[in-house]
Amino acid sequence: MVSIAIVPPLSPRPAAPVRAVSGPLVVNVGVVGPGKVGSALLSQLRLAAPRLLRDCGLELRVRGVSDSRHMWLDCDDEALNGRTHGAQTWRPAALDAFAAHVAGHHGEMAVLADCSASDVVADWYAAWLAAGIHVVTPNKRAASGSLERWRRIGAAAQSSGAHLGYEGTVGAGLPVVQTLRDLVDTGDELAAVEGMLSGTLAWLFNRFDGSVPFSALVREAHAMGYTEPDPRDDLSGMDVARKLVILAREAGLALSLDDVSVASLIPPDLADCSRDEFMERLGEMDAPMASRLAEARQAGGVLRHVARLDGARASVGIQVVEPGHAFAHARLTDNVVRFATRRYCDNALVVQGPGAGPEVTAAAVFADLLRVAGAMGVKRCAC
Ligand SMILES: NC(=O)c1ccc[n+]([C@@H]2O[C@H](COP(=O)([O-])OP(=O)(O)OC[C@H]3O[C@@H](n4cnc5c(N)ncnc54)[C@H](O)[C@@H]3O)[C@@H](O)[C@H]2O)c1
Ligand SMILES: N[C@@H](CCO)C(=O)O
């Protein structure tokens, strides 16, 4: 086994300064969670690195990858991507040592990309940001978790000047968070949000016509990387509730998950078992879902999973929409997010497109990383 020097602990320091005029801007990157999104991100980083160095003077250096048990530090990508468990260079995971390793290059930027769905990782954001390490993530836990932790994270970023990017938390690669932020920052006011915020549920209800059992479709969505690590997060509506909380907070509302009325699709018997047991017993959802489909057809409509935020009232659940409704015409994993604001009052501003999948989500994380680099002085225009 290759020995790796023990890295010093994190200490508070300001985010790396804007680069000097000569030489590339070096960004040291650590990827936490080399699952579907994390692996896609590693591939995208590897592919884009030569062009970014050549055209933008940005040098991306992947310094390490950590899952919940192992971390790989400064080895080549084949080993880093987590698929090579026989790699010589792994050591037991420790996120403090991991962050210190990625950030341990004086005067250079460090960015941690959290591609887990873990609260344990989100608990580290405030310390990382306070230490001047930028964080980019599609993990919804921080932005939709306890308000106390969220405020601590914001204060840490404020104090050091480090950035937190979380565009991928809502709508995967779609510009949803940034669109809302731009509206609010330019003086608009959010009146309501209505939409389909789950790629998985959109895909399931687009496909569910009774010819294939609902459980088989859930397994397919899981295999394609659309679902959360535990598909119950999608089917319970909690993943969508998290997205609604993120949007509400972006608009200045101190909303929490407890404030969202969530109608779950999970039979009570399956709510608390292990994920593996749930996947084995998925067939128990088939009969209740077939009944819902029959009811929707009898009413002359189609099933869609809809989220609403109106003032501080937030709700998430399945509903029957008329065949002519815009939500009935969304395709595949399409998310639809309709922002009604003071400016967009006669006709809502709509963001629509694929809302799940490792590639598009990884691209949102990557774009957040590039925005951080842009804020630090990298030229990103095409002129
Ligand atoms: N898949 C999508 O379409 C999509 C879209 C938008 C957002 N997201 C978000 O992206 C994240 C990743 O999704 P995924 O589909 O890649 O899931 P995944 O299950 O494939 O990967 C999760 C990874 O996180 C790692 N992990 C778990 N706990 C950890 C810990 N404590 N420390 C370090 N690593 C840990 C796991 O080992 C795994 O490698 C989730 O937060 C999800 O909500 C996913
Ligand atoms: N599982 C989520 C991923 C995107 O957050 C969805 O299907 O929408």
From TrEMBL:
<dbReference type="Pfam" id="PF00742">
    <property type="entry name" value="Homoserine_dh"/>
</dbReference>
<dbReference type="Pfam" id="PF03447">
    <property type="entry name" value="NAD_binding_3"/>
</dbReference>
<dbReference type="InterPro" id="IPR019811">
    <property type="entry name" value="HDH_CS"/>
</dbReference>
<protein>
    <recommendedName>
        <fullName>Homoserine dehydrogenase</fullName>
        <ecNumber>1.1.1.3</ecNumber>
    </recommendedName>
</protein>
<dbReference type="InterPro" id="IPR022697">
    <property type="entry name" value="HDH_short"/>
</dbReference>
<feature type="domain" description="Homoserine dehydrogenase catalytic">
    <location>
        <begin position="175"/>
        <end position="370"/>
    </location>
</feature>
<comment type="pathway">
    <text>Amino-acid biosynthesis; L-methionine biosynthesis via de novo pathway; L-homoserine from L-aspartate: step 3/3.</text>
</comment>
<keyword id="KW-0791">Threonine biosynthesis</keyword>
<feature type="domain" description="Aspartate/homoserine dehydrogenase NAD-binding">
    <location>
        <begin position="33"/>
        <end position="167"/>
    </location>
</feature>
<comment type="pathway">
    <text>Amino-acid biosynthesis; L-threonine biosynthesis; L-threonine from L-aspartate: step 3/5.</text>
</comment>
<keyword id="KW-0028">Amino-acid biosynthesis</keyword>
<comment type="similarity">
    <text>Belongs to the homoserine dehydrogenase family.</text>
</comment>
<keyword id="KW-0560">Oxidoreductase</keyword>
<keyword id="KW-0521">NADP</keyword>
<dbReference type="InterPro" id="IPR005106">
    <property type="entry name" value="Asp/hSer_DH_NAD-bd"/>
</dbReference>
<dbReference type="InterPro" id="IPR011147">
    <property type="entry name" value="Bifunc_Aspkin/hSer_DH"/>
</dbReference>
<keyword id="KW-0486">Methionine biosynthesis</keyword>
<dbReference type="InterPro" id="IPR001342">
    <property type="entry name" value="HDH_cat"/>
</dbReference>
<dbReference type="InterPro" id="IPR036291">
    <property type="entry name" value="NAD(P)-bd_dom_sf"/>
</dbReference>
